């Protein structure tokens, strides 16, 4: 992404910083709590999502080019390794992406920003799969 001055603009800057990231995470977990398609995905999360939301907010902010607070607190993301204890197949990937798309639609007004984020998250979500189809 480039800004008007042809300087590189991060996704984090483009969407407006930490506040929109926090709204995105809240909407994401609201979708996970309410969409029938996400029921099984929600079941692998703790009942109290307070810490989970905090960590995802830090991660997404850093992933989008914002502050490195996630790594400063938790070290290298190692996302696939951190999720190996959970069964992540196509259904979980698809439910996660559905919740994220819903959250992006609700919280990020710029359609180009929504598409850029979802487009970058889709391969990451696919890479997280640790179960083969079948």
Automatic annotation (TrEMBL):
Gene Ontology molecular function, alphabetical: heme binding; metal ion binding; oxygen binding; oxygen carrier activity
Record has Ion transport as a keyword: no
Any matching Pfam family: Bac_globin
Keywords for this protein: Heme, Iron, Metal-binding, Transport
InterPro entries: GlbO/GLB3-like, Globin-like_sf, Globin/Proto, Hemoglobin_trunc
Signal peptide positions (record): none
Assigned protein family: Belongs to the truncated hemoglobin family. Group II subfamily.
Name of the protein this chain belongs to: Hemoglobin
């Amino acid at each position: 992404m480039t800004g008007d001055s042809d300087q590189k603009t991060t996704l984090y800057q483009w969407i407006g910083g930490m506040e929109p990231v926090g709204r995105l995470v809240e909407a994401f977990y609201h979708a996970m709590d309410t969409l029938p398609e996400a029921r099984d995905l929600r079941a692998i999360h703790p009942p109290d999502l307070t810490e989970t939301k905090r960590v995802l907010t830090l991660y997404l902010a850093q992933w989008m080019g914002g502050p490195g607070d996630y790594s400063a607190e938790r070290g290298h993301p190692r996302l696939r390794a951190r999720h190996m204890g959970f069964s992540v197949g196509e259904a979980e990937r698809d439910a996660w992406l559905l919740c994220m798309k819903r959250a992006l639609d609700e919280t990020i007004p710029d359609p180009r920003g929504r598409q850029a984020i979802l487009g970058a998250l889709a391969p990451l979500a696919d890479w997280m799969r640790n179960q083969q189809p079948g």
